[in-house]
Structures are given as C-alpha cells and as structure tokens.
Specification:
A hairpin with a 7-residue loop joins β12 (about 315-325) and β13. With about 400 residues, the protein is of the alpha+beta class. The strands form four sheets. The protein has a six-stranded mixed β-sheet, with helices on one face. Strands 11-10-9-15-14 form a five-stranded antiparallel β-sheet. The chain has a two-stranded antiparallel ribbon with strand order 3-4. It has helices at about 30-60, 60-65, 70-80, 80-90, 95-110, 120-125, 135-140, 150-170, 185-205, 370-375, 380-385, and strands at about 15-20, 25, 220, 235, 250-255, 260-265, 275, 280-285, 290-300, 305-310, 310-315, 315-325, 330-335, 345, 350-360.
Length: about 400
C-alpha cells in the first residue's frame, strides 16, 4: 500500500503509524479525522472480523457460511438488532453520532483503496459491502447478546419444569428472595423452555462464543505503593472466550483535545471497555447485572395475531424476513413482537411463546452518549459522570 493517500473526506493531514508490535497509532488534527483514522486502521487489521460480526448481528451469516449459519441467523432475525441499532443511532447526541459517521467513512475509505482482501472473503464467496454507522452499534450488541442472564433463566425454567417446585425450592443457586420468577405449571410450558434451551445451544456457536464459559468480568486495581514502578495498575478480566483473532483490538488515538490508548472492538469507534487518557483509566465490568427478562406470552388466533394482557388481547407486531443461504434455497422467517419485546423462542401459532425484554433492544436509551466525554475526563468524578448514560 502507498505510504501516502489522499481522501476528500479528511479535514487535514492524518497520520497512522505502526509500532514494532503492529499496533496502530493515529494522530489527527480534528475529531472527525481521529475517528476516520480509527475506522481505516481497524479495517486494515480486522476487516473479516468486522464483516463476520455485522453479518451475524442482522441474520446474514448464512450468506457466507451456508446452512450451518441458519440457527444463529434465525435467532438474530427474531431479535431485531438492526432496527435497535438504527434507533440508537437516531437518538445519539450529535458529537457521538459524528464519531460513528466518521468511523464509517474511514472504513469505506480503506475499501476504496481496493485492498487485498483477507482470504476468508474468497473462501466464502462474498465481498465487503460499504460500512454504515449503525453497523458499529449492531456489532457491539451482538458481541453482548448472550452475556446476560437470558440463557441462565431459560435453563432454570426448564429445570423447574422437570423437578417441580418442592425440589426447586431446595436448590441453592436461586436468585435473591423477592426476585420475580414466575413459571406456570404444565408440560406445555416445560417443553417450551426445553425447546428454547436447544435453540440457544444451536445458535451460541455463532452468536456469542459463550456456550462453555461464564458470562461476566472482573476488575481490580493495585496501588502504586505496591508496584515496582510506583504507579497504579488497573486490570480487567473480561471473561471472553478465546477467539481468533482476539475479541479486542489495541489502538492509540490522539485528537485535538484527547490522547487515549486502549482496546476496543474492531468496527466500533472510541474506547468503551478499556482506555487510558493520561489522567484517568477505565475498564468496564459485567457486574452480573440483570438486564434481560423472559415473558411467557399467550397468543390467540390461527396465526398468533394477538396476545393476552391484563386488560385483554393486543395485536402482535408481525413481519417476514428472508434469509439467503449460500449453496441452498433461501429461508423465510416470520417474527413476532409483543409489548415486552421480540418473540425469541416458540411459535405463537401454537398458542404460547417466549418474549425477551432487553435493554439493548429498547429505543431511546442513548447508551453510547458517554463515549466522547470519557476520553477527556480529568478525574474519576468526571469519568463517572461521563459513564452515567451507560446501559
């Protein structure tokens, strides 16, 4: 690749240099150019990983993988991450939205250089499509979709149905007293949850990489009084399964009023998880937060057009989607949505299905608005304030 390139979207000269370890160091005169450069460098290093993430986020992995990708694509389509990602983009603060837009321009600028593509593109017979700002949000969501308690709750419900309430009460891994766990008795409900467990197991390989590890994280700090350098050490164990390449991508970005080193997802601007700006350092832990609830919905009508509520039945939102499959016929998938969220398991036509209520699917929460403010936090108080919008 030439050592110097010209792009009309840049405000000024932008430098991307690589250190001895291959880590990108980006120096920019404007915020726009900083995120443009981060997108460009990420695409240089991890284009296939970015392609993989955005395809599995919206139910298009089967276009590359063939029928083996269908279980994950079916579940991804039901979740509706594309519409959720677009809603988050629409709700963003202007300065944060500008980060995502400039980042997408940087990715597309790299694609415009007609680079030698990673070999996976030839193996799967696909070519990279232009990057859009909402792709970064969908990518972030799919990297977390199976990290909540959704799977755990499905497993507990299936176990309750199998062992009965008396044995269930003796188990020691129950939620705290007062936690809402309601499961009507009956074989039909148990079968629904057992079916949900099977669906999650089938999709986990491509959706979450979490089928064999605990979803969580640890964070700790060592005082400078106890280190050889005299400086504190901030540490994090992000509990992510081994992945090739690694889930995180190291990068250093310097803009007009910030200078940050850290790790992020390739395909996502800023430093949401790990970073140091010269004054403050941060890492984000899972904290075992409970942000996913499952609801058993009862549906009426031959097509599951309505579902029951305390005040009578309501119409369910229904839509159809087509999943294209490499080397096989396309598959049509129908989705339902209730007041609680998308139906993720079961068939409403049978009269019963499970809906998921999840913070990442609820519009208007503006979860990424602290991304820009975090970069310039001068002390922990400013850092906490920047993180106040985190969802």
């Amino acid at each position: 690749m030439p050592s110097a390139l010209r792009f009309p979207d840049l405000d000024a000269a932008l430098t991307i240099r690589r250190d001895a370890y291959g880590v990108a160091h980006i120096e920019a005169a404007t915020d726009h150019d900083a995120w443009f450069g981060q997108g460009f460098a990420a695409a240089q290093d991890r284009l296939w990983q970015m392609e993989y993430d955005r395809r599995r986020a919206v139910g298009r992995w089967s276009e590359a993988a063939g029928p083996t990708g269908l279980p994950a694509d079916r579940l991804a389509v039901r979740l509706g991450l594309e519409s959720a990602a677009k809603a988050d983009l629409d709700a963003m603060a202007p300065d944060v939205r500008a980060m995502f837009e400039a980042y997408a321009k940087g990715v597309n600028a790299f694609l415009a250089t007609n680079p030698v593509l990673p070999p996976e593109f030839a193996l799967t017979g696909i070519t990279p499509e232009p990057w859009e700002p909402w792709h970064s949000i969908a990518l972030f969501k799919i990297r977390h979709i199976l990290m909540g308690l959704w799977q755990w709750k499905v497993a507990c419900a299936g176990l309750l149905g199998r062992v009965g309430p008396e044995t269930w009460e003796k188990l020691r891994f129950l939620p705290a007293v007062g936690t809402a766990v309601v499961l009507p008795p009956g074989t039909k409900v148990m079968e629904l949850y057992l079916h949900a467990s099977e669906e999650i197991a089938a999709a986990a390989e491509h959706l979450g990489f979490l089928s064999e590890i605990e979803a969580g994280s640890n964070s700790w700090v060592v005082s400078g009084d106890r280190t050889a350098t005299g400086k504190p050490v901030l540490c994090n164990d992000s509990h992510r399964a081994l992945d090739v390449p690694n889930a995180y991508w190291q990068v250093h970005v310097a803009g007009p009023d910030f200078n940050v080193s850290g790790a992020t997802f390739a395909g996502f601007p800023g430093f949401p998880h790990f970073g140091f700006n010269g004054s403050t350092g941060w890492n984000i832990t899972h904290t075992q937060a409970d942000y996913q609830d499952l609801f058993i919905e009862k549906f009426e009508g031959p097509d599951g057009d309505r579902y029951l509520t305390e005040s009578g039945s309501r119409p369910a939102e229904r839509s159809k989607h087509t999943i294209r499959v490499r080397g096989a016929d396309a598959e049509s998938v129908e989705t339902w949505k209730t007041r609680h969220g998308p139906v993720v398991h079961g068939d409403p036509r049978s009269g019963m299905a499970i809906a998921l209520s999840y913070t990442a699917l609820q519009p208007g929460r503006r979860p990424f608005d602290g991304l820009r403010a975090t970069l310039v936090a001068k002390d922990v108080h400013q850092l906490f304030e920047a993180q106040r919008t985190w969802v």
